[in-house]
Amino acid sequence: MSFDPNNDEKSSSSSSTRLYNPYQDLKIPSESLYKLPTSPEFLFLEESIKKRRSWGENLTYYTGIGYLGGALIGGSKGFLDGVKAIEKTDTLKLKVNRVLNGSGHVGRVFGNRVGVIGLMYAGLESGMVGLRDCDDVVNSAVAGLGTGALYRAASGPRSAAVAGVIGGFVGLVAVSGKQALKRYVPI
């Protein structure tokens, strides 16, 4: 037996039951009650004005993307190296072991290297944004230049200068490409 709120008496059929709606007295359409906003919500107006991630979000994002990308590329290279190292006399277990060891070792090394590069880039870019108080292509180019120079600084000044130029060029191309995609490719 179930309770029917329309006639205040117990009815025996289960098809005539109506579910309890706790919001019926509020005069709010229940369909729009749980529609959550899709745009980000900000606590302060200053946060909503800026169109970029915070320095901590940048640090996490670039480090994570760098590690993941480096691990995938390094794992692929290690897989190929492991396949090339297989000998004709190896058993199936040895073949699998060579492939897994090669892909795991090289993937880990590449992932760590590119993750550190992402960490340095994010720190330098956030520092540039804080110093210059604007977000433009110059920040990314200078952050790339500084990242390349810092990463190769232990190899000598010439190697650091070459790596800095390459890093600055890569940062400039990446940001310019991102802006061109935003402008010309509707997503």
Automatic annotation (TrEMBL):
**InterPro entries cross-referenced by the UniProt entry:** Tim23-like
Q: Report one GO cellular component.
A: TIM23 mitochondrial import inner membrane translocase complex
Q: Identify its membrane topology class.
A: Multi-pass membrane protein
GO molecular function, a single term: protein transmembrane transporter activity
Tell whether Ribonucleoprotein is among the UniProt keywords.
Answer: no
Keywords (alphabetical) are: Membrane, Transmembrane, Transmembrane helix
- What processes in GO biological process is this protein linked to? protein import into mitochondrial matrix
Q: Is the keyword Membrane in the record?
A: yes
Localization of this protein: Membrane
Pfam families in the record, alphabetically? Tim17 (PF02466)
Principal cellular location given in the protein's record:
membrane
Q: What is this protein called?
A: Amino acid transporter
